[in-house]
Automatic annotation (TrEMBL), chain A:
ABC transmembrane type-1 domain boundaries: 72-284
The entry's keywords: Cell membrane, Membrane, Transmembrane, Transmembrane helix, Transport
Biological-process GO terms, alphabetical: transmembrane transport
Residues passing through the membrane, by range: 12-34, 76-97, 109-129, 156-181, 202-223, 263-285
Localization (cell): Cell membrane
Protein name (Swiss-Prot/TrEMBL): Sugar ABC transporter permease
Membrane topology listed for this record: Multi-pass membrane protein
Xref: Pfam families: BPD_transp_1
PROSITE patterns per the UniProt record, alphabetical: ABC_TM1 (PS50928)
Entry GO CC: plasma membrane
Coiled coil: none
Family: Belongs to the binding-protein-dependent transport system permease family.
């Protein structure tokens, strides 16, 4: 009797799992396994014979491939700047907006709206700003310092990418902070004020510890999104000038889909990208989870 | 009291400066989309002298706006329906089944959430070719379902745990089969999280660029974003109509946001708290 029940439960479980499992197996599990197995070969993607080369692709990518190593450094720089700036600006905006009941919705809409525009479209709109508009502003004696070779000089194009990315991402981070701030009971803040705490003290000693879960979420989100940034950079600089603003995802894309065709090698780089993201997000999660307060 | 006023003014000032930074690109794109090339060359910063819709008409045609919007709509809606139904079914049984294997399946789905799309895009493209789904609208839908179920199952599982299961047991005793229990009792109860998942997935799929770029080569099946990308590539120098095209491309989702603002904000917050 028990055995029969168990068999029936298996049957029901598999029946309910089957639809999602089919799609998931075909377009997630198979590509993951395929990518991993080819990363150990020298397959060029066409030729029927290829050799198992062990870790050679990985070693080559991490020691010899100058462009890949540069893209790694660039990615780290971009991630650090983006995670910091989106969170600082997003939190500031959220705090400023939160108490202004009348204008709250208007400001939230303004800051969030760019997030609704596809990153690639946003990047093209910003190309227009950088190529045409900022120089024109300077010619009218407005904000002359903005007249720079934004997309032609590696130092400037880094900040051009950051500016455009902030424009699209800050609103998302801010929305999450606003929701968290609403969860902080007003009595706590008032009690601290009655005890003589200044505005800044209230923020750092009461508010911030109570929204630590949102900080953790936003760090995780931005860390993940910035590591995966592709559209913004593809659309704004295409990785240039030269290859100076190439992120890892763009480097993998180019390796796989343009010019030379080293299929196994490209897959090895794709896996390095994954391991990179994995290690850093796990470290981050461990680090911030400890600081959260359960409300 | 003085100090409080100063702090307040500083905050308002900063909010206004930031508002300018956020609105300026959209403003400057809008005013130039109404100008002729000559007028733009003369004065980028000033308002257009006459409102001409010429650029929008050009962009409408070059983008194949109706067809590509329709394609995007089909891909996004079918994918979301597919993700919602398959994931809610799976999550329901994964969470309520007493079999230890259920936990294994949960981990199998959720583990891939950390894998960046760029890490599998190479072999995904090849898999799509091998399976003959590359490039067609329905094929693209199947790929989105495959990529989207992991997060949806994760979010659904968290939610199913909060539903009291007495209802289900009562229905089973009344002789309801498992599929009817799911469809008539469980699925309606999942409505709040279904809304969250649908919103997050619409935002993702509607604005997605890389997957259509890799998969869709036939211009008949272009999505709106893909079409805008090709348009930009071809007419880069013709800024006025390019801007009109970029604005038109963004319009559907901006309208979607303005209508469903409350739900979208709620969905993003709920989705991120659980994610």
């Amino acid at each position: 009797m028990i055995k029969k029940n168990k068999r029936k439960e298996w049957k029901v479980l598999l029946l309910f799992l089957l639809p999602s499992l089919i799609f998931y197996a075909l377009f997630m599990v198979v590509p993951v396994i395929m990518g991993m197995s080819y990363s150990f070969t020298d397959w060029n993607g066409l030729n029927p014979d290829y050799q198992f080369v062990g870790l050679k692709n990985f070693v080559d990518a991490l020691t010899r491939d100058k462009y890949f190593l540069d893209s790694m450094k660039f990615t780290i720089k971009y991630v650090v700047v983006m995670v910091t700036l989106t969170n600082v600006i997003g939190l500031l905006l959220a705090v400023f907006i939160d108490k202004r009941i009348k204008t709250k919705n208007m400001f939230r809409t303004i800051f969030f709206l760019p997030n609704m525009i596809s990153f690639i479209i946003g990047a093209y709109i910003w190309q227009f700003i950088f190529r045409k508009v900022l120089g024109e502003l300077a010619r009218h004696n407005l904000l002359g310092f903005l007249d720079q070779p934004w997309l032609g000089n590696p130092n400037f194009s880094f900040w051009a990418i950051v500016m455009m990315s902030l424009w699209t991402s800050v609103g998302y981070v801010m929305v999450i902070y606003i929701a968290a701030l609403q969860g902080v009971p007003a009595e706590y803040k008032e009690a601290a004020k009655v005890d003589g705490a200044s505005g800044l003290q209230v923020f750092f000693k009461v508010t911030l510890p109570m929204i630590m879960h949102a900080v953790s979420i936003n760090l995780f989100l931005m860390l993940n999104n910035s590591f995966k940034a592709f559209d913004q950079i593809y659309g704004l600089t295409g990785g240039g000038p030269g290859r100076s603003t190439q992120v890892m995802s763009l480097n993998v894309y180019e390796e796989a889909f343009s010019s030379y065709y080293r299929y196994g090698y490209a897959n090895a780089k794709a896996i390095i990208l994954f391991l990179f993201v994995l290690v850093i997000t796990l470290i981050q999660l461990k680090f911030t989870r400890r600081k959260e307060i359960k409300v | 009291m003085m100090k409080k006023n100063v702090v307040n003014s500083v905050q308002v000032f900063m909010l206004l400066i930031m508002s300018v930074f956020f609105l300026f690109p959209i403003y400057i794109a809008v005013i130039n989309a109404f100008k002729t090339d000559g007028e733009m060359a003369r004065s980028i910063l000033s308002l257009p002298q006459v409102l001409s819709f010429h650029n929008f008409i050009t962009a409408f045609r070059k983008l194949d706006f109706l067809r590509t919007t329709f394609n995007t709509f089909i891909i996004a809606s079918l994918s979301v329906i597919g993700i919602v139904i398959t994931s809610s079914m799976a999550a329901y049984k994964i969470t309520t089944s007493k079999l230890p294997a259920a936990r294994f399946f949960y981990l199998l789905f959720v583990a891939s959430m950390l894998i960046p799309f760029h890490s599998i895009m190479i072999s995904l493209t090849r898999t799509a070719i091998n399976l003959g789904v590359k490039g067609s609208l329905l094929g693209t839908v199947t790929i989105y379902i495959g990529l989207g179920v992991n997060m949806a199952i994760f979010l659904y599982s968290g939610f199913v745990k909060t539903i009291p299961m007495e209802l289900e047991e009562a229905a089973v005793i009344d002789g309801c089969g498992p599929f009817r229990v799911y469809w008539h009792i469980i699925f309606p109860l999942l409505k709040p999280i279904t809304a969250t998942i649908a919103i997050l997935d619409v935002l993702w799929i509607w604005n997605d660029f890389l997957l259509p770029l890799l998969m869709i080569t036939n211009s008949k099946n272009y999505t709106l974003i893909l079409s805008a990308n090709k348009f930009f590539g071809k007419y880069e120098a013709d800024w006025t109509s390019v801007l009109a095209g970029l604005l038109m491309t963004s319009l559907p989702l901006v309208i979607f946001y303005l209508i469903f603002q409350k739900h979208i904000v709620k969905g993003i917050t709920a989705g991120s708290v659980k994610g």
